[in-house]
Amino acid sequence: MPGALNFTPISIFRPNSGRKMPINSFRIRASTEISESTVDSSSQGGLNAGVSTSNPNFSPPPNFKPPEPKRFGIRPDRTLDILGASLSLIFRLGTGVFADGYSVSLVSKDEIPSDQYALEIAGFKLKERSKLGPRPENPIEIYEFESLLQLIGILTNYFAPLASPYVACNTLSTSVVPSAEREIVAVLDLDVLYYPCPRNGPNFRPKAVQMGGKKMFPYMVDPNTGVSMYESDDIIKYLVNKYGNGQVPLLLSLGLLTTLTEGFAMIGRMGRGSSYTPAKMPPKPLVLWAYEGSPFCKVAREVLVELELPHIQRSCARGSPKRQDLYARVGHFQVPYLEDPNTGVQMFESAEIVDYLKATYAL
Ligand SMILES: N[C@@H](CCC(=O)N[C@@H](CS)C(=O)NCC(=O)O)C(=O)O
């Protein structure tokens, strides 16, 4: 049966101003320098490297058993967390939920073979597509953390001159808005090696300062080109020019409105993912299949950041072809999905992922 319903979302993209990459971006040697310190370099560069191996120094909690996946299910003790994390869906109008050029049609069940991923709704299946740009060979590397305080600081700086005419006027951009760059990563369907830099984090925060020369986050390194830079705005423009169609999503280019809506979206999480919880540093980055728009993924990722655990995010927003990769491998698609090459654990379910990470790594 042909598509009973076709839906292409209203374009939230608009051409950017055509500005090239910022001229003040500079080049550094990326991954090799980082790997010297804490993370096993052999695990970098290959996304699936070491996923099924484990390290004798790291083991899952006693009697650990991966939980059964429950799609869209919320563990009762986590309801408030998921509701809080869902605020971004409202304030950010779904930015970070759909991959670039997303379109969908509702088709009959037998139009999509059972070995192909497709979400089933009321006896129909969703046929989802996207139009993606050139793919980077190695994951982009980003040093960052969630910072509600940082955002409050930006807004205070912005509004202070309105209250006092004697204070110099500030301009506002999405420059250091922490979640903006995560949204573009989902839209462009990029895999990213995150180096979390929570407040008081002893490892990657000083490393980023050493590499880039400034105590500022996010800080991005593209090991494919050797380019590195600060400032969400510049990172976003660089990524859409290099790995997208050159157009910055409208909701990421609205200046004050972007900052305000990102801020409101973060309020629901009350500063989670911003401060360091002492933890063991594993030799290999964990792998999290996730995307920014998912509240379930958000709560899992926050804990990775708090514990300062380096992780590769395999982005798989709606329309991502990587959904099929996970489906083919595991026989089920659901995110978040965690692969820990340090213990050999592979698991679904956000609440249990949070418990697992704390039990395995927190000191
Ligand atoms: N009980 C799961 C729910 C996870 C979930 O339902 N995730 C959604 C994304 S927000 C998903 O993977 N949906 C499957 C699909 O879109 O095909 C958890 O807490 O992790």
TrEMBL record:
Residue ranges under compositional bias (Polar residues)?
Answer: 35-53
Question: Which Gene3D superfamilies does the protein's record reference?
Answer: Glutaredoxin (3.40.30.10)
Q: Which InterPro entries match?
A: Glutathione_S-Trfase (IPR040079), Glutathione_S-Trfase_N (IPR004045), Thioredoxin-like_sf (IPR036249)
Annotated segments matching region Disordered: 35-67
GST N-terminal domain boundaries: 284-363
* GO CC, any one term: chloroplast
PROSITE patterns named in the record: GST_NTER (PS50404)
Q: What's the protein called, per UniProt?
A: GST N-terminal domain-containing protein
